[in-house]
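Researcher: Re-running this chain for the archive, since the previous output was lost when a drive failed. Same request as before.
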Amino acid sequence: METKEFEAESKQLLNLMINSIYSNKEIFLRELISNASDAIDKYKYISLTSDGKYQNKTEYAINLSIDKDNKSLTISDNGVGMNHDDIVNNLGTIAKSGSKDFLTKFKESKDAEDLNIIGQFGVGFYSAFMVSKKVEVITKKYDSDKAYKFTSDGESTYTIEEVERDESGTTVTIYLKDDTNEENYSKYLEYYEIEDLVKKYSDYIRYPIKLLEIEKKPKLDENGKEIKDEFTEEKVVKTLNSMIPLWKKSKKEVTTEAMNEFYKNNFYDSEDPLLSIYINVEGLISYSGLVFIPSHAPYDLYSENYEKGLTLYSKGVFIKSKCKELVPDYLKFIKGLIDSSDLNLNISREMLQESAKLNKIRDNVENKVISNLKELKDNDFDKYSKFFDIYGSYIKFGLYTSFGGKKDLLSDLLVYKTLEDSNKYLSLKAYKDTMKEGQKFIYYATGNNVDEIKLLPELEAYKKKGINVLLCTDNIDEFTLMAIRDYDKVEFRNISSESKDELSQEEKNKIDTLNSENKELLDNMIEALQGKVDEVSFSTKLVDSPVCISTKEGLSLKMEKVINDLPNNNEEQVKAKKVLEINPDHDLFKAIKELSSNKEELSDYANLLYDEAMLLEGYEVKNKEDFAKTLNKIILKSISKK
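Model: Regenerated structure tokens:
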């Protein structure tokens, strides 16, 4: 026998687990049964793809038994089993790389019960310690002659010793804790309780879950009469689960409640999914499946290590848990499974040969998810708004990365807060349907948040004319809108873009006259702002503000910042072509007009106006010292003149 210590992080996790950080302790049985089912899946796959080297077993089953005298519950399978190294790696090291993430999340959480810790961080087996004072695991790997027993009380150490076992598989025996005022652990020794838990959490497990029940019956004499205080014991084996996978049932048999429970039990979530999708396709490629959109983003969705994919089965046999070929990148947040009778069992080793079939399944799954989202948007906009709050950036990503190729598929899923109502989303169709007569474009404004966008001077003219504007706060927004170019033949237009094609002839004539009459002023301002702006011009956008910054040639200030801030961006920094636009009707312009030939004073005003415009665009003043000096200089001049 050898004694080993758990790793430091594993000890911390064990301590948290033993001290009941998860209030729903009964899920320990679900976890152990799921592990047993996974082990059988793995062995079944190995046997079917080993060219006869490992025999397919005549029966696969998960067996449960209760020993009331020893206060123990046993879960046994005839699956793949473990060898010595597997025990150390899988049982002696909890969660591996995920343990740090878990501990961080736990410390950050105000309410530990809010964390979906079980399974999500790979600690499913250790849920047994929530109800037990000791756990024993006897296991034998399918390709080994040796069997081992793992024993631990969940403190700091565990032991491993060689034992005897006939066939491959794993047997887990948990010795229950003593009852307390707060917790009744003895209930897990009642047959009806175990039966209820299996029905609740594991009814769709594809292998029979059998409970060995000992029934005591009165002993009878030779005349058939009961003998007082004497009993006989009979072993009764009951199969507790239906064994019909949910995705194999007809759609009319599958209730919303059943879908929700299946999702929570199989994808380790405490909340119902936001959307559940049943799939059953018959044709050149036949398959069935279940797809779910979680009601909250998976904890590691934004991590580089996040693995997308649906669980893949072939003819009911488990193939792999994260089949990325079934999910486009922009739908990486979906969870679920696909089971096809038209795929080879050894598909994981012959993925290239099967890629065409997988691609067709992926495309159908994609279309099914999008059609369900469109239906949700049309029928329950509040719920769809919740979806878009969580996953909207991924829909935009799908449009951008396809260079608009998915425009017809995804455009109708885009919704935005607007100038008219910054609290609710508006669809592009609803925007187009309410456009002003003669309005040529769908207008949008960009910024870090709604409040910041509302400060943009450029919005003044749109407010005055009653033209609605989309408020774009995601970094990807403008890239997406530029990729799709238009919605239903109406082009998108950034209100900060410098463009004269929207002006009436009267407005164009006014601008031309102003530019001509104030050429010296404009030239001197351009000289004063050399390196900061490419042009100084007059504007019809402004109402109350003296100036604003616009950009030319399609690259906005927001896009400039996003591109230059990209990690590992070693290329030369991109630069937007900036135009300082002046409000010719503002009193400030009328005042500085008198300074046309005074280059020094004009330079001070020009730089202050530029900094003001950049601040209102949401950017910090780059040289705060020069800004303060110039501001103080102008204030002193103003005071001295009085």
